[in-house]
Amino acid sequence: MKPLLTFSDIPSLLFDLLKQDKGSCLFFFLVGLILRGIPELVIAQYPVGYETITWYAPVITRFQEMSVFDVFAQTFRAGPLFYVMIWFGAAFSGAHAFLLLKVVAPLLYGCLAVSFFVFLRRGLRFEWKMAFTASLLLVFQVAALRLAWDRLRNILGLTFVFAALAMLKSNSRFKWPLVAGFAVLAVLSRDYVALILFVTVLGFAFLENKGRLISLISLTPAFAIFAVMVYPAELWLDYVSTGLYASASYLWTVQDILSIFAVCYLPLLPFVLKGFRRDHVLDPMVGLLLFGSLSVVVSPRFAVPGYQRWLVLLVFPFSIYAARGFERSRFLNKNNAKMLKAIVLVFILIGLGYSTGAFSYVGMLPNSYIAVNLVQSSIAWNQVDDVKDVLRWLDENAPTNSSVLAEERFYGWTLIYLKRANGDVEIVPYGAASPPWGALKQVLDDGFRWIYLIWYSDSNLEGFETIYSQNSVSIFQYEQQTASF
What we know:
D-Maltodextrin-Binding Protein, domain 2, globular, 485 residues, 60% helix, single chain, 21 helices
């Protein structure tokens, strides 16, 4: 009797499953989950990522003493949905903040991969092969993995953004209620990510010359929440002043933009240019992302904040253009299947190397935003114990009503491991790659007499004297009588 299923039948059955949308969704969820989960397994003790330690973990470690309403209220302007989800996870599991972050980050990346694929199939009406190719390209891109490394609220918000955009060309009677619901969830995840949805939906309605009023009505609840969440003062940024987050110089900023763009998109760029074409869904999105990325070049004293994050978000339309470039180059034809597989395999290997830390070209172009690989935190792993040691010393020796200046990469560690942080010792952060003078001026204006700085031991900053060191990390004290800035 012939068996119902033989070993040789399995590849064909798997491929048939993969060609169904449900099978593809499962595939991309698992790929995203595994790819983002690998660095968490490589580094077992701490969550990887810059913002995971700098901004997320310090907040989450205080959840035991907070109600869900406290969490929502205190994180509202930052995007409360992610924190509320984590609060419930902590309440039901009792897990430490580090473990929660290590588990949630891979799950979110898997969900984003699924949402993007569904958007391509339903929102852009791509055939399966095109949607699958574009999604596979995206999930292994350095820029997408950089987002998944630590921009967790962004990943959550983008998942809802693409879910909403998937409805744009739908004929369902629930289309606009779903868009409205996803928009609210997007804005509660991250305000500026929701801005992408607003611009894309309204831009699409305007370009299509239909549905303008209903699209505006559908987005009104999300608009209202957005207006309450946003700080008006944070709608623009002076990059060349002496503020807390000022850059080193205008030329440094321009060079940084070019470096980030090259690191993220240079391998993909020929296919992006080949596949670019006007599209009523993508045009408003790309316009906003380019404006956010390049406004600082045109107007450095009055620019959209965070050019780095806008640059990285270009990975979504660029992956789509690249897949179209493959199509125009006829790589999607059966006769060129080997060429397509070879090109996609190159990008898969780049993504795997970047995720695992096995190899990466990113370090060849230093920049302010793209980590060399995902197996990193805000500081080197061999410096964590040094940081703990100098903070322990500071806990024991800092006078009451002291202040500590902490550059972003040390800020989270200081909040977590300095027991007196923001009790009788004020912690003042300043931007990555920025000098401490803006933060110093702030604490001097506030009347602090005892001012400390946590920084690298081999540094020489005017007015600061080393008072305690542990290998590569030191505590510096500001000498007011001798310094000027």
